[in-house]
C-alpha cells in the first residue's frame, strides 16, 4: 500500500513511523509535516531524523506552521517535550525538506498514484484541508484518508469535549468532514484501548536495541505525562493505531456516520455525529491486545 503519513513528531508519531517502516504491506512514499506536538520546523527536523535512523530514503515535505486563521501557536511541550522527543534535545538536522509544501506534495502524489494512495493524518488536519482546497480532485484521487483524531463516543483528552488533533485546527477538521474523501476516523474511542506500558517498551527494546531502545527512551517523558494526568500505567498507541487501521481494518468495529466539528465556543474541537453530512467510517471498538502485539512484533523486527 502506498502511504503518506501527515505528522507532527511527536513521541507516538515516532512510534507510528517506525511501525510503518517495519510493516511489509506499507510502501512509505513520504512524510508531510504539520505544527502540533511541536512547531512545524521541529516536526520536519524530527521526521527527517527518524527516516534517516530507519534507513528510509523518503522525502519530507513541510506543511502548515499554524492553524487556519491563527497567528500564534503553543506546542504541546508538556506532553512531548521541548523538541518533540521527550527528554532528548540534541536532535540533528539531517538533509533537507522537499521543495514542495506538504499540500502541494500531497496533491502531486495523489495525481501520480491516482486511486492507490492512502494518506494517514496523525496531526492536526490543516495540510489535508489545504490539499483539498488546492485541488478539488484531491479527495477523489486518493484511495483513502485515515485520521487519528476525534472522540465521538468518549470524552476528549485536551478538553472534556475535544481530542488534541481536532482541537488544534477545528476549522480544518470541519472542512474535511464537510466533503470528505473515503475516510476512516481512528479516535480516542479506540486508541485509549491500546495502552502500551513500561514493560511493553522494555520488551520491545530487548528485541530491537536501536529503534526499540530509542522509542523506549523518548517515551519515558510521555509515560510520565499519562501517569500524572490520569494515573494510567501506559500510553495510548494513538498514531500507530491509525497506521494499523490503514492495513488491518477488520481489527476494528466500525460505524458509519456524518461528522461535524464544533469550531468555536467552549466545546471547540468536539466531533459529533451529523446526519446531514457525508458518511465517514468511525472506529468504535478495537482488538486492543491485537494492535499492541502487532505493533511490538513489527517494530521488534527493526535493528
Ligand atoms: C494525538 O495528539 C497528539 O498529541 C498525538 O501525537 C496524537 O496524534 C492524540 O490525541
Ligand atoms: Ca501526532
TrEMBL record:
GO terms for molecular function: purine nucleosidase activity. The keyword Hydrolase applies. Residues 3-291 form the Inosine/uridine-preferring nucleoside hydrolase domain. One of its GO terms (biological process) is purine nucleoside catabolic process. Its EC number is 3.2.-.-. The keyword Hydrolase applies. GO terms for cellular component: cytosol. Keywords: Glycosidase, Hydrolase. This is Pyrimidine-specific ribonucleoside hydrolase RihA. It comes from Ruegeria atlantica.
Amino acid at each position: 500500500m502506498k502511504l503518506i503519513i501527515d505528522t507532527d513528531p511527536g513521541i507516538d508519531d515516532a512510534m507510528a513511523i517506525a511501525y510503518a517502516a517495519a510493516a511489509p504491506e506499507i510502501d512509505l512514499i513520504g512524510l508531510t509535516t504539520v505544527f502540533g506536538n511541536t512547531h512545524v520546523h521541529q516536526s520536519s527536523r524530527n521526521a527527517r531524523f527518524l527516516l534517516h535512523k530507519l534507513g528510509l530514503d523518503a522525502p519530507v515535505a513541510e506543511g502548515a506552521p499554524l492553524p487556519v486563521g491563527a497567528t500564534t501557536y503553543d506546542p504541546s511541550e508538556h506532553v512531548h517535550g521541548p523538541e518533540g522527543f521527550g527528554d532528548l534535545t540534541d536532535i540533528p538536522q539531517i538533509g533537507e525538506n522537499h521543495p514542495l509544501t506538504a499540500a502541494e506534495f500531497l496533491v502531486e502524489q495523489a495525481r501520480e498514484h491516482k486511486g492507490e494512495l492512502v494518506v494517514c493524518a496523525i496531526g492536526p488536519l490543516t495540510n489535508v484541508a489545504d490539499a483539498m482546497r488546492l485541488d478539488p480532485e484531491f479527495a477523489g484521487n486518493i484511495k483513502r484518508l485515515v485520521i487519528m483524531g476525534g472522540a465521538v463516543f468518549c470524552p476528549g483528552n485536551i478538553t472534556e469535549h475535544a481530542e488534541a488533533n481536532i482541537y488544534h485546527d477545528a476549522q480544518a477538521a470541519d472542512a474535511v468532514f464537510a466533503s470528505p474523501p473515503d475516510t476512516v476516523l481512528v479516535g480516542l474511542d479506540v486508541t485509549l484501548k491500546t495502552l502500551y506500558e513500561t514493560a511493553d517498551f522494555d520488551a520491545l527494546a530487548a528485541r530491537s536495541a536501536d529503534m526499540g531502545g530509542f522509542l523506549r527512551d523518548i517515551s519515558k517523558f510521555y509515560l510520565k505525562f499519562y501517569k500524572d494526568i490520569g494515573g494510567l500505567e501506559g500510553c495510548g498507541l494513538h498514531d500507530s493505531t491509525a497506521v494499523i487501521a490503514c492495513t488491518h481494518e477488520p481489527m476494528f468495529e466500525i460505524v458509519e456516520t456524518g461528522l461535524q466539528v464544533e469550531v468555536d465556543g467552549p466545546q471547540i474541537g468536539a466531533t459529533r455525529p451529523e446526519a446531514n453530512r457525508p458518511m465517514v467510517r468511525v472506529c468504535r471498538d478495537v482488538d486492543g491486545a491485537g494492535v499492541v502485539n502487532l505493533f511490538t512484533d513489527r517494530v521488534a523486527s527493526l535493528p
